[in-house]
Amino acid sequence: MKPLFPPFAPDPNEPRRRRFRPVPLRVLAPNLITLFALCLGLTAIRMAHEDRLELAVYAILVAAFLDGIDGRVARLLKGTSRFGAELDSLADFVNFGVAPALIIYSFTLNGLGGFGWVIALVFAIASCLRLARFNVMAEDPGRADWKKDFFVGMPAPAGAVAGFLPVYLHFLGLPMDAYMAFPVALYMLAIAFLMVSSLPTYAGKSIGKRVPRSWVLPIFVASVAFVALLLTFTFEMLAACTLLYLAMIPLTFARYRRLEREHQARAREARESRKDEPVDHRPSSPS
């Protein structure tokens, strides 16, 4: 009687199974920063529902800081990946779209009932659309170099930090009674409109490439002074920076239009110079 499972020798020519290659640590490090920022955004929602509004705001601010450095860390370590880009977009939607909308809703918009919830939805969806447009434009190879210093619309992290302006003013002593819910709703609609609009906002990507030697010490002093003021007068500085950022949008738009006119003028001059070049109509000699 033959055994049911006779022994057999493996085929030496059988191809080996494909093993997954180990992932370098330099690729994992930026994604870990993004995941930590995502945990802060989710924790901020919990803090808001537990009436610990100040901790919720701090969590979103730290998440915004981490969002600003994860991409730079990835480029510095040469650990950029498609997975990291997608993870960053999903984390940004939660941290700067969903979390701020729920926090502001629990803070004051819930006094408007269903209308307040619609405002929260509009803010979250505007952040989602803003991030989707950013991902599409980032893959556009034909974008002019001078346009890379500008964002199209307000970035989602800036929208989240600016959207907390009513909370900053509340901690500074401004009463947020029931009659303030409607002005806050209008303000949140304005921030949502800025995120999905085509208004250019300054990106600052050219900052940090080269710094004049005479500016090094003043930059150190100004940075230390800013951090000290932010830690000492947190909500005063946040409110002042938010108002200053909003006031700079018209100035940024004027600069963008001026650079656009200069670019169009140079393009016209280049086309006219090509038209004025003499054209050789002589037939080419046979080789």
Automatic annotation (TrEMBL):
A GO CC annotation given for this chain: membrane
Molecular function via GO: CDP-diacylglycerol-serine O-phosphatidyltransferase activity
NCBIfam families: pssA (TIGR00473)
Record carries keyword Transmembrane: yes
Annotated segments matching region Disordered: 265-287
Family in the record: Belongs to the CDP-alcohol phosphatidyltransferase class-I family.
Lineage, uppermost ranks: Bacteria, Pseudomonadati, Pseudomonadota, Alphaproteobacteria, Hyphomicrobiales
Membrane-crossing residue ranges in chain numbering: 27-49, 114-132, 152-172, 184-203, 215-231, 237-256
Organism listed in the record: Saliniramus fredricksonii
Chief site of localization: membrane
Protein name per Swiss-Prot or TrEMBL: CDP-diacylglycerol--serine O-phosphatidyltransferase
